[in-house]
Known about the structure:
Elements: H1 11-25, H2 30-37, H3 41-45, H4 50-63, H5 76-92, H6 98-102, H7 109-125, H8 129-149, H9 166-175, H10 179-200
Helix pairs in contact: 1-2, 1-4, 5-8, 7-8, 8-10
Domain HTH tetR-type: 8-66
Keywords: DNA-binding, Transcription, Transcription regulation
Pfam families: TetR_C_1
Amino acid sequence: MGRPRKALLDRERIGATALELVDETGDFSVPEVARRLGVQTASVYHHVDGRAGVIELLRERVTDAIDSGTLAGVDWDVALENWARSYRAAFAAHPRTIPMLMTAPVRAPGVLAQYETVAGLLLAAGFAPPLVLPIVTGLDNIVLGSALDMSAPDTMWEVSEGTAVPRLAAAQAVTGAARADQAFDLTLAGFLGHCRELLRTGPAHAP
């Protein structure tokens, strides 16, 4: 019998299967990935460094949808805004990965390369090195928090009969389904505006 043209197992299939499980249930285990692929758990470990390795495959698959081209050829603030919007859309498609990926160190080379570009943009713009990671982390928090919010119900405040919150109820009634998008736009604009102010008022330094 000839050898199969395609390997039964590879990192791409492991990552895709783990992502399917997380999208369905919010979590995965290496034995579950193996069962869905029809292989032994030990076979998965031949391709990845345990659970942490699978998490990085998840990160790679989700972030592949981010348009890194948004970081090129424009001013730093425009680049960050465009990148943030693409970044948000990528994670909004897989919101259940967010808690897992936010609490695991980033090791995937392709993802690290995007952060390296962002760090370079900030340094070239004039931000001092101690401010680079706080800005990057702040942007992460805005993007990933908003991506998770996009999977929440349109009506987040359930006002039952007899509950005396008329101003909240009125505000919710006129906001509509665009609440998450409006909140993201507002928060991102405020964040970038503050960063611009740091540069305008003098040397950008860590507080």
